[in-house]
Amino acid sequence: MLSxxxxxxxxxxxxxxxxxxxxxxSVGDQLNGRxxxxxxxxxxxxxxEVYTEGRLEWVDDEGRDFVDTEYGYDIEFxxxxxxLFTPAxxxxxxPNPRLYNSLGSGNRATLxxxxxxxxxxxxDAIGLLSYxxxxxxxxxxxxxxxxxxxxxxxxxxxxxxxxxxxDVGGIDMVDVNYKERKMAMQMELIESI
Length: 193
Fold this sequence. Notes:
The chain is 27% helix and 24% strand. By secondary structure, it is α+β, with helices and mostly antiparallel strands. A 6-stranded mixed sheet has the order 1-2-3-5-6-9. Strands 4-8-7 form a 3-stranded antiparallel sheet, with no helix packed on it.
């Protein structure tokens, strides 16, 4: 398996960073409502399949969102608005992504089916860490059970960046109203029957 550093460098060459940042920035906070978060997740994850020209195949399975078609790695993607950098000063953060949610079916002490790599994203940055980081005694990041979830207690020093905000080039924001388009599509379907 590639090291975190090698894999991050490889993905940096595979992802169309500017298109990713443009899409996520253009959608902005339109999909932050409780009924919209799954659409937001699907939209951001699926764009990575397109913006890697299919290299990251979106599979949307439990505990993994992608399979890297070149290496066969299973990848889980987690997105938060300011996952990796603080909004005011742009300092690196120690994120705590929810890596597994049993949806009320019981407390978990470990991940039931861990991915090979975890991508942590925000609009203008993506970092990664391998599952092995959580077991590495030389690293501080650990898995923490929390009610019906497993949280990644991740330290910034254990994250290898695929790209940072300063790597994003020209972003031409697109005026898009996702919710309006979704409602129009739903009405078109309803009226067609």
